[in-house]
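Repro case for the chain-ordering regression, as requested:
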Amino acid sequence: METSNFYNEILTEHNIRPYHKHDMPDATFSLNGVNPSCGDDITLKLKVVDDVIEDASFIGDGCAISQASADIMADMVIGRSKEEALRLAEMFIRMIKGSVTNEEIDELEEAGALKDISHMPARVKCAVLGWHTLQEIFEKNEDANT
Amino acid sequence: METSNFYNEILTEHNIRPYHKHDMPDATFSLNGVNPSCGDDITLKLKVVDDVIEDASFIGDGCAISQASADIMADMVIGRSKEEALRLAEMFIRMIKGSVTNEEIDELEEAGALKDISHMPARVKCAVLGWHTLQEIFEKNEDANT
Amino acid sequence: MSINVNISHREDFPLLRDSNIVYLDNAATSQKPDCVIEAVEEFYHKHNANPLRGFYELAMLATEQLENSRTTVKEFINAKFEEEVIFTKGTTESINLIANSYGMNFLGEGDEILISIMEHHCNILPWQFVASKTGAVLKYLECDMDGLISDTAIEEAITDKTKIVAITQLSNVLGRENPIARITKTAHEHGAIVVMDAAQSVVHVKIDVQALDVDFMAFSGHKIMSPMGIGILYGKKELLNKMPPFLRGGEMIESVTRTDAVFAQLPYKFEAGTDNASGAVGLMAAINYINSIGMEYMHERTLMLTKMCFDAICKIPHIHIIGAKDSNNHNGIISFTIDNVHPHDVSQILSESNVCVRAGHHCAQPLCDFLGFKSCTRASFMFYNTQEDIDTFIKSLSGIRKMMGYGD
Amino acid sequence: MSINVNISHREDFPLLRDSNIVYLDNAATSQKPDCVIEAVEEFYHKHNANPLRGFYELAMLATEQLENSRTTVKEFINAKFEEEVIFTKGTTESINLIANSYGMNFLGEGDEILISIMEHHCNILPWQFVASKTGAVLKYLECDMDGLISDTAIEEAITDKTKIVAITQLSNVLGRENPIARITKTAHEHGAIVVMDAAQSVVHVKIDVQALDVDFMAFSGHKIMSPMGIGILYGKKELLNKMPPFLRGGEMIESVTRTDAVFAQLPYKFEAGTDNASGAVGLMAAINYINSIGMEYMHERTLMLTKMCFDAICKIPHIHIIGAKDSNNHNGIISFTIDNVHPHDVSQILSESNVCVRAGHHCAQPLCDFLGFKSCTRASFMFYNTQEDIDTFIKSLSGIRKMMGYGD
Ligand SMILES: Cc1ncc(COP(=O)(O)O)c(C=O)c1O
Ligand SMILES: Cc1ncc(COP(=O)(O)O)c(C=O)c1O
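-- result from build under test --
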């Protein structure tokens, strides 16, 4: 586990200069996700039109991993359909559990920068917080939205 | 600790053929003493006239040590004054705790056969049950009797 | 399975290896093999940190050890989920947890708690307490003089009023295995839950909580060759989920304010305070050791030793074995009385020949009362005992009445 | 006392001796010296039996070891009587015992429980529970931003309604020693009892329960170099005598019938189940080790290390130490925040240099809220830490903001 490699530029950049950390007045979904034991706390906001994520943002605070991971996620899901976003979420969570192929890591783009979390059980929750919240938004609203 | 020496003739004799294990209809004092954790259970009976123990007996059951010790005690205190009996009780209990002189052990006569109990913490309660009950009888009745 | 009585496992146990002790008090606590003692040592040499708390490597190693142990226990008892396995300090704490968290909160006036007459005090007193506080009624399920709990007794004792049946899988006095699956079935038909005390059985019977369908199960590590101070509570997830915590403190919370707290998920909700990780590691090593020797083999060997001893005792006059007439129903436990010799004297005389047995009421006074004696002597075996152990024991036992001054 | 910083005690601790770990999470748990690990091993090699139960020699040895440990603890904390020393599995169990046995039975509607704002969750949640069940009111005694509890605060908070004051002798976040004797005096004037959490203090402050006049006191062995799974509850005899038992089972009874039980004398009334004798033996070895090193020397050394580290941190920009400005008020505990870097990231980055520190709310969320942060990083020292440890820590700490992408 090489931490200095781990806190790489992708991660630190998304942490200190997040693109998508802001409010979204016209969001169609908003959900709070927390890791109570860590104190990580984000509110994910999505603007979904016809099952396509037109915009994504988050507010909140927490460790660099939770914040950067949420920011990277927002970046990735904007413009994607609900199904594609959920497929990425599933893939990301699998990566964190240590069972993805190299092709899949490539597909995860910048989120692949978090793959070493699979060796850091204590940080798993931080990395997946954003993605879990995304999944929850769509699960909770499945009925309403179909 | 040589147990075979310990269960000597004095002890086994007093255990299986106790002289004083019987009821006493004209007892002036009767008190039940128990070691709940061991199950030792005796009722000590004394006939005290003018502060002199005219007769002593016990009923009940328990291990050889508790029974033999009670029987030996009864033997020793018959004919003695309350004060002398209490002095012997104090001496006996000290012997069990391992702090008596050889002269004192001699004075304890047959009760001296129990001196090795001082090396058997688990059996101390058994050996002193009779003597404790004797002390209790006189303590409880101090006011009534003076 | 064919057991060679001449093969000895004594060598694995330093206390036995380095002494001439004839240890026949295995039902009180077991001896520990080198591998268990060394596992604890290794934990302190290499992995010691407060588990579940840190982000540094050592703390993660400690956490991993603790959770590996949980997984090992889960497989050992065939639980469905890891989070159904809760670390406690022993059977006594586990049962008190159930009584305080489940009993106190889900019982009321007129409900019935059924326990067997052969329970250990730790499966009696917590229920007396619950009964006194909730107004529930404590009832007893009785056995016959052979220690058998009959189907009829079960059918009669369990009614729609019964809410909890708490019973040992194996009596620490009688050694007989109780018909748990039978009891669970009847209890569930009447809507009652079953708490199984596995303190004695865990080392003799392969436990399968799913097959037995028990709702709660408890055992202590120290009786299965693991260190002292660690034990297990198993509970079905849906029950544990609806129960409030028992001990309260660190690790079992999600968040705390001045006035309130949100509790953590299972299993942590029930593991307040620093977990005994070294104990858990020792327990894991003990289970691995058991698996390497083979549970079935261990049990067969114990039964063989039990039979040898049982048959020999039967030949000594004035000795009366308590419970079943068939040694196969004794599972390593032989309790007995000797005419006119008190068990404490028996135990002390045996101790002279380095034979360690237990004497007394064995924390089962209601059973002693029921069977009509105050106390008894108990010899209990594990697979690491030897034929020599039994020979020494029998020889010393045979001379006791004479030593106590009796003619025969 | 003059302390030579170059003398190292690291050699006594196998985990430190055989690695390059910089262990600064001592407030979570301590490392164990060889003598403690070996004492546990020796117990299993030579004395292992179920204590308090047997009449054979091995059982008496086990009992003797357990009781010797009790005597050692009695002297260590200067209790008046052996039977005031009760073995538990740790601070958390000890405090839960007090809350459940004393709190639940001697408090009622309108009574007040006073705890400090800096309590560990295990000295908060049990009282929240007691308050919710008995109708008592839970109040908080506050400190200032330096962690000081003033005389005025004490005088105002303790009233005739106060029945229990539960307070830590040393905060696990602030490291500051609280004025316990002062609190006890006021509490007693108002007829309240005092429960002291000594989990953190026991390794830094020479505890004298009689001089402090506390009514109850609790600590865990694992924080003072003894094995996990053992802890102490001290209570004044007259209070313990009038309290009902907490855990119920074997060993804590005199006699049991189907419907009732007579409880044993102190200390056994509160020690249901098989005692963790090997844990007690380890605790005894740890106390003997402490006595051989010298409590005062240990503390002086810790203060010196604390000061070195404190002064160095003060020179790093963007780092804020929590609590007192004087390092002598930190007793081996330095908690801090770094601007814009989350403590979990701090801890993980330090871990890269083998530095073990803890990050989070440290089981003291109400204190964090009160002081205005969600979490912080904590470095905590024991006498076996070295100047090198601190150098490595400071070096790594200095580079964190840069590593996280900040310009300075
Ligand atoms: C002040 C304080 N109290 C109580 C505890 C709890 O101790 P344990 O987890 O050993 O029960 C701790 C340590 O975690 C502590 O620092
Ligand atoms: C059947 C049974 N249940 C419970 C216990 C209690 O176990 P522990 O003392 O380890 O809590 C014992 C052993 O003493 C036992 O034999």
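Ordering looks correct now. The domain at 2-140 of chain A is CATH 3.90.1010.10 (Sufe protein. Chain: A).
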